[in-house]
Amino acid sequence: MINIDPRTKLIQVLILSTLALIYNEISILLIILFTAIIIGFINNVNFISIISRLKKLLKIIFMIALIQSLLTNMGNPLLKIGKLMVFTDYGIIKALEFILRMGIIIVSAAIITTSSSREIIQGLIQWKCPYEIAFMVSVAIRFLPIFKEEMTDMITAIQLRGIDLKKVKFDKKLQVYKYILTPITVNSVMKAKELAAAMEMRGFRAYPKRTSYMVLKMQTFDYILLGLNIGAAILFIILRGVL
Amino acid sequence: MNAVEVKNLSFKYKDTKEYVFKDVNFSVRPGETLAITGRSGSGKTTLCNCICGLVPRLYKGELRGEVLIFGENIKNLSIADTVTKIGVIFQNPSTQLFSPTIEDELAFGPENLCVDREEIGLRMNEILRIINMEDYRHDNPNNLSGGQQQLIAIASTLMLKPSILICDEIMSWIDDEGRAIIKDILLKLKKDGKTIIVVDHENENLDIADRIICIGD
């Protein structure tokens, strides 16, 4: 298995997302998405597991794309009911652009997740990013599942008291969530304090600098990959300008 | 010289009227294992926080009296000096572990104290051997049992080589098997000459202590 430096992955993702923002044409976005998928394979991304984990998000993306195409009146009508334009070619193109861009972002995020948060932090630190900022991001990632679990526990506790959230009206549901919010906020503050105490007793910020047990070193393969990526991106931009 | 000396210690949290405890006096000799017991809410955890300096650094309130660590007032010790003299293991293992792998978790403390990489590696190997978890070094602490997580919390504290170890109800979230393993580790550390303060309200967890004191009513 090829072990790619997290900094190489960050640069690859930066290039892909920048190109996805610069260009609007469907064909180009398709090329970028295809390239992103190839880069994903090189970085050992498990696409099957990503798709199964993001099923809900993918549904939302398709729903937004559908609504976007329905609400766009510009362009030539493709489907018309009376005077109402349901689908236009421009609307469909805009929806496809949105789907492709979101696809590029998801593949980019998947590329990043092939490195652990500690490796990414170390990459950022070796790029001279302040440790405290990188560490805060890592702690936030670490505690997200705990808060999700806590939220699920609270909802279960409420349901055990006889409130079936699926059958409750929307305004009542909002009220229930309002009740849940207070204990979750209090618990979060308490957890943050406990975490701060543990960090303090392990010497966090004892000195302005710190050493690092993990040291990242770029390999020849990383340089080749970076050279290819940057070269391809520049060539792509130049060719698009000429053609 | 005593390892820990608590003199006329009283504390009340900011915005509260009642003192958590008043005029507490005791001392711990080097190498001694002292157990502190008392009913829930008697201030055992707050007392631990006062001994290790988290009060008033992190938890604000009115603190009277003094805590001496090997003759030095805890208030005058820097963070680096404090953590190399006193290590604290807290009740909840999940909020003490915040790194994606056990290796990173263990390295966190010494990295903060600017210990070099080779030394961190040596300490890590030794401590993982003591807690018998060498095979788990690349695992995520989230995937471990409560007992194993608490062992990693102990190991993370030991990585700083503190002379005094405070265990604040560390066995309350753990099953019987986990308790036996942790007690065994504490006995090993006691044999190695560590000064240990065990805080617990369950008497069965205090059998490793040389002396027991009770706070509160």
Question: What are the main properties of this structure?
Answer:
heterodimer, A: 243 residues, mainly alpha, two-stranded antiparallel ribbon, 4% strand, B: 217 residues, alpha/beta, Rossmann fold, four-stranded antiparallel β-sheet, 7 helices, 24% strand
Identify the quaternary structure here. heterodimer
* Pattern of helices and strands of chain A: HHHHEEHHHHH
- What is the name of the CATH topology of chain B? Rossmann fold
Q: Unreliable segments of chain A (pLDDT under 50, ≥5 consecutive)?
A: none
Instruction: Give the CATH class of chain B.
Output: Alpha Beta
Total number of beta strands of chain A: 2
Domains of chain A, number = 2
Sheet with the most strands: spatial strand order of chain B? 6-7-8-3-9
How far apart are the first and last residues' alpha carbons of chain B, in Å? 30 Å
* Rg from alpha-carbon coordinates of chain B: 17 Å
Q: Treating each run of at least 4 consecutive H or I residues as one helix, how many helices of chain B?
A: 7
Which geometry of chain B do the CA atoms define?
A: globular
Which architecture of chain B per CATH? 3-Layer(aba) Sandwich
Main β-sheet of chain A, in a few words? 2 strands, antiparallel
Instruction: Enumerate the strands of the largest sheet of chain A in spatial order, edge to edge or round the barrel.
Output: 1-2
Largest sheet of chain B: 5 strands, parallel
